[in-house]
């Protein structure tokens, strides 16, 4: 079994320290970039009360994306990465 490495991730201006397999780090970082870019996009387009509003908007956007809009293999990577991030954040909290 591969050894987990610690990485710091930032979601919506909050930093989390998680552990991941080295082979998953790039996928996680690409997914985080997409998430944070969408948060910035929604902040400029819509008025919200706080960061949680923008995170909710990004999650709705992500959940409603069709396979035709994205590369299916990239979509699977993003879903896997999001699930791993969620799992690791749950453990950290």
Task: Explain the overall architecture.
With 93 residues, the chain is α+β, with helices and mostly antiparallel strands. It has one domain. 59% of the residues lie in helices and 15% in strands. The protein is built from three helices and two strands. The protein has helices at 25-45, 51-63, 72-92, and strands at residues 5-11, 14-20. The chain has a two-stranded antiparallel ribbon. Strand 1 (5-11) and strand 2 (14-20) form a beta hairpin. The protein is globular. The protein starts with a strand and ends with a helix.
Task: Indicate the low-confidence ranges by residue numbers.
Answer: none
Q: Which structural class do you get from the secondary structure elements?
A: alpha+beta
Assembly status: single chain
Q: Largest sheet, described in full?
A: 2 strands, antiparallel
The tally of beta strands, per DSSP, is 2
**Terminal CA distance:** 25 Å
Helix content: 55-70%
Strand proportion: 15-25%
Global geometry? globular
Strand order of the largest sheet: 1-2
Give the overall pLDDT as a whole number.
Answer: 84
Number of helices: 3
Short account of what is shown:
This protein has 93 residues and is of the alpha+beta class.
Annotation keywords:
single chain, 93 residues, alpha+beta, 2 strands, 15% strand
């Amino acid at each position: 079994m591969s050894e987990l490495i610690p990485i710091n991730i930032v979601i919506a201006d909050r930093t989390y320290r998680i552990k991941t397999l080295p082979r998953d780090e790039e996928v996680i970082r690409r997914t985080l970039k997409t998430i944070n870019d969408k948060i910035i996009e929604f902040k400029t387009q819509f008025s919200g009360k706080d960061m949680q509003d923008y995170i909710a908007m990004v999650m709705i956007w992500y959940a409603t994306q069709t396979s035709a809009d994205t590369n299916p293999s990239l979509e699977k990577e993003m879903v896997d990465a999001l699930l791993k991030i969620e799992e690791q954040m749950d453990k950290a909290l």
